[in-house]
Amino acid sequence: MAETIDELTFNYEDEGRLVRKEIDRAVLSKGAWATLMFLYQELDRQTEQYREPKIAIVRFKKWNGVYRKQSSFNISSRKQAQQILEVIEKWYGPGAAGAPGAAGAAAAGPTGDGGEGGEE
Questions:
Q1: More exposed terminus of the chain, fewer Cβ within 10 Å: N or C?
Q2: pTM of the complete model
Q3: Residue 56 CB: number of other CB atoms within 10 A?
Q4: C-alpha distances in angstroms, 31 versus 57, 99, 106, 112?
């Protein structure tokens, strides 16, 4: 069990074999609720080769001093990752409703709660 964010991993062993290998990771948020994004590969047991990389976005909750997985979302292919990027760019790219300075974003304020907000 992981007590710190640095101890969290997406590696998984089955009968002493590494069947899910973490390639890279990014910490998106820290604290009692932490969100991490993992780039990983799964072992194809027939060929003994690792498959194309996938992405997992995982939410952890710290309870009694230990982080426990609460939820996750897997991006299973390069195509799906590209589709997600396109939607985010549409929603948050220059001139989009969610972009800084856009009419919808300005009305809500920098914090998104309608208040003045703090530093960006």
A1: C
A2: 0.78
A3: 18
A4: 16, 26, 28, 21
Distance of CA 92 to the CA centre of its chain: 17
What's the distance, Cα to Cα, between the start and end of the chain in Å? Answer: 34
pLDDT, tens digit (0-9, with 9 covering 90-100), for 73-108: 999 999 999 999 999 999 998 888 877 776 654 444
Evaluate whether 69 touches 6 at the Cβ level (below 8 Å).
no
What 3-state DSSP class applies to 90? helix
Burial class of 60 by CB neighbour count within 10 A (0 to 12, 13 to 18, 19+): buried
As beta bridge partners, residue 38 has 25, 56
Closest CA relative to residue 76, chosen from 47, 100, 99, 53? 53
In 3D space, the residue among 39, 31, 33 whose CA is nearest the CA of residue 59 turns out to be 33
Q: Are 102 and 96 in contact (CB under 8 A)?
A: yes
Tokens 């304020």, residue located = 109
